[in-house]
Amino acid sequence: MNFKLKKYACATLAALALISAPVFAEEAVPQVTIFKNVNIFDGTSTKLIKGKDVLIEGNLIKVIGVDLDVKGATVIDGGGRTITPGLHDMHTHVALFRNVTNSRNNLDMAYTGALAAARLEGMLMNGFTTVMDVGGPAKFAQKLVDEGIYKGPRIYPSEALITQTSGHGDFRNPNEVHPNLSGSSTHPWDSQFSCIADGETEIRRCVRQNLRRGATQVKIMAGGGVSSQFDPLHSKQSSPAETRAAVEAAESWGTFVAAHAYTDKAVKEAVENGVKYILHAPMISEDTAELMADKNVYMGATLAPVFSVPIESLKTMLSPTSFKKFLQVYETYPNAMRAAIKEGVTMVFGSDILSTPEKTIQMDDSANLEFLQLVKYMSNAEALISATGNANKLIGEMGPNNPYADGPTGVIKEGAYADLLLVDGDPIADIKVMTTPDETFDVIMKDGVIYKNEL
């Protein structure tokens, strides 16, 4: 090889080496935000921690202290405002609308999904950085938010309601053939919204199908409900063996079962057979409340849908059958709440908003009114804890199925997710500041990202 060719070959090899050499991109520096001069409601204590700074690095709370300073940080002067964890609504139905049977039969599935997605940003702007959907498709909404396509809260989906034939989740027309019978027509509702199951084998199938679809917990119907037409409120649904089958199938994935239950008998039997989260429970006795507390079972009372809407308005919204059932709940709920509080049942916040397609986004703005009902039975701080720290405990029951595992939500502490609200006022002294998010939530942050800043 002559000198010129050798020189060219060496240069070529050197160039190829440079091209093939790994390129180490400069590591992105996490965004740092410091909230200065704030009073902290930490999600677990009944008193504020006053005069602190909170340093956010990336999507986590890094340091809580005094006179914190980091070069290049975004600084927000709280001016003595209260910083709280983002709120948790642990009883939502993102894609369900009233009248449920009419929605099942008349709403286009694409319309239903689009309307559900349209609700997400409003939930976040009302201060709910986390929601648990306890029936109906929600995994799709979770993906839309997590992928940044829509603004919205973290979503824990249960996917399809699991109901017995003629149970609270069976919203078929009277003459419609059972979906599990040979030769019946298929309906998308029967796999995505409500899974009708009779017997232990079918229950296991529905639970496992939901888990396959991405459910982080599952929900069964343990008794009658108000919005359905063909199940009396007193009816006891899901036999002990069926409930145990659901719990066993869920526990095999390390997660838990929630149950819709109204009557004392339905609640007691669900708790005895392993259900971890009872929804509603407006008719429980002190003995059943004591059992719930002893077994560390959570209660998600939904009071605002019962007591915040005028009875005459509900009479026009509900069918005669449903309105009759509603009146039974209206009369018994106060006693059930007093029993639950007396026996020390762990309460979690839930709104259970179910409205017509035309009014659902407007109705979502009423979710915060649940606080006004809760404080009839507990302190302001305890009501806030139900929407923050207690919700965090319930999320912990889903174990490794939690897709948001970098830190806890619902608390203000080092290492927790930076999901928080800066509130103009002291909610421990005046819970009403939590019911007017447009006026009193000056900053809304989720996952370290500021979605609202009025300062």
TrEMBL record:
Residues 82-448 form the Amidohydrolase-related domain. Gene3D superfamilies: Metal-dependent hydrolases, Urease, subunit C, domain 1. It comes from the Bacteria. Keywords: Signal. The keyword DNA-binding does not apply. Residues 1-25 form the signal peptide. This is Amidohydrolase family protein. It comes from Thalassotalea psychrophila. The lineage of its organism: Bacteria, Pseudomonadati, Pseudomonadota, Gammaproteobacteria, Alteromonadales.
